[in-house]
Design brief:
The complex is a heterodimer of chains A (64) and B (142). With 64 residues, chain A is an all-alpha fold. Chain A contains 2 helices and no strands. In chain A, helix 1 (11-30) runs antiparallel to helix 2. Chain A starts with 10 loop residues before the first helix and ends in a 5-residue tail after the last helix. Chain B is mostly helical and 142 residues long. Chain B has one domain. Chain B contains 6 helices and no strands. Chain B has helices spanning 2-34, 38-42, 46-65, 78-88, 93-100, 110-137. In chain B, helix 1 runs antiparallel to helix 6 and helix 3 (46-65) runs parallel beside helix 5 (93-100). The longest helix of chain B is centred in the N-terminal third of the chain and has 33 residues, at 2-34. The radius of gyration of chain B is 20 Å and the shape is elongated. The chains are: A mainly alpha (64), B mainly alpha (142). Chain A binds chain B through residues 4-9, 11, 14, 17-18, 21-22, 24-25, 28-29, and chain B through 47-48, 51-52, 55-56, 58-59, 62, 64-67, 100, 102-103, 110-111, 114, 117-118, 121, 125, 128-129, 132.
Chain lengths: 64, 142
């Protein structure tokens, strides 16, 4: 991060931030009970990261 | 005779209440779009209200901070128009993003491209939240 609100995030950091924020929003909108919300957030976050990393590895051969 | 008269009155009142409820739900949805979380706050769904406000706010903050592209109404093609619709989904936060991005967009690096996605996602997420508030106000399961 530098002056002037110019955030410098790596690919992984941006993906983690995105996945976490969206998972929390989905959890709160989609579930009513706190326990269900936490389960949904964790599961959603896991799937976001799994799919993100999976697609990253699937594209790896094309970069060489 | 008396029962049929009461039934007529009931059927006359029910659509009026229904349309009033629809109008209220519509206003709640518009409020939720205008200020993220306000629609849920008006229904005293505080957890969801705070979550909508913070998640949409964080996405806009980081999206603008990463110098993502904030589309304007004077786009050149359909993708610009779609981007503008998505960005406008953040309601008043669109103006906040404009004021945060003092140096303008920079999508020449990956961070700026991520920022563009963050801003568009914030708008779409807020539209989803406004739709959720609308359904909740109509009495649907939420």
């Amino acid at each position: 991060m530098n002056a002037g609100l110019g955030f410098k995030l790596s690919h992984l950091q941006a993906m983690l931030l995105f996945a976490l924020v969206i998972s929390i929003a989905f959890g709160f909108l989609g579930r009513r009970r706190p326990v269900d919300r936490v389960k949904y957030i964790v599961w959603s976050l896991f799937l976001f990261l799994l799919v993100g990393v999976g697609i990253g590895w699937a594209m790896y051969p094309f970069s060489h | 005779m008396e029962e049929s008269k009461m039934a007529d009155e009931t059927t006359a009142i029910a659509p009026q209440q229904g349309s009033r409820r629809e109008a209220k739900a519509f206003l709640i949805a518009v409020a939720g779009w205008f200020v993220p979380g306000l629609g849920h706050a008006l229904m005293k769904m505080w957890g969801r209200a705070v979550t909508c406000f913070l998640t949409v706010g964080l996405l806009v903050f980081f999206g603008a901070g990463m110098r993502g592209n904030l589309f304007s109404s004077s786009g050149n093609d359909a993708f610009d128009a779609l981007g503008y619709i998505a960005d406008m989904g953040t309601g008043t936060f669109y103006l906040a993003a404009r004021s945060l991005e003092k140096e303008g967009a920079d999508v020449s690096h990956a961070g700026g491209d991520y920022g563009t996605r963050f801003l568009a996602t914030a708008g779409v997420l807020n539209l989803l939240a406004a739709l959720h508030a609308f359904e909740a106000a109509r009495g649907r399961k939420a």
